């Protein structure tokens, strides 16, 4: 079983993750990041690479994908909050998509390219 991050571990790890676009999830001990890729193929490729990293760590994200958008939430279910596994997986995911756009405002609706194309924008 994984252990929750201590306050010192949170202070050491979370600011750098925040700089990369990870943000706290309201009402949960979890972090979330939203990537926007150029197209579905790039998003799917990221998800495939991310799945391999998750399997290596035996730590699996909560995620969704709509066309070019991948929305990931990390938390460790067996300790009901953030653990070192989440920090490690977040760093690995960041390394897989250095050129992707990151939606930093999680309060804004997530709009994928398919909706933009449908509106003719």
UniProtKB/TrEMBL annotation:
GO terms for biological process: tetrahydrobiopterin biosynthetic process. Transmembrane segments: none annotated. Belongs to the pterin-4-alpha-carbinolamine dehydratase family. It holds the Pfam family Pterin_4a. One of its GO terms (molecular function) is 4-alpha-hydroxytetrahydrobiopterin dehydratase activity. Its EC number is 4.2.1.96. It catalyses: (4aS,6R)-4a-hydroxy-L-erythro-5,6,7,8-tetrahydrobiopterin = (6R)-L-erythro-6,7-dihydrobiopterin + H2O. PANTHER family: PTERIN-4-ALPHA-CARBINOLAMINE DEHYDRATASE (PTHR12599). This is Putative pterin-4-alpha-carbinolamine dehydratase. It comes from Albidovulum denitrificans. Keywords: Lyase. InterPro entries: PCD_sf (IPR036428), Pterin_deHydtase (IPR001533).
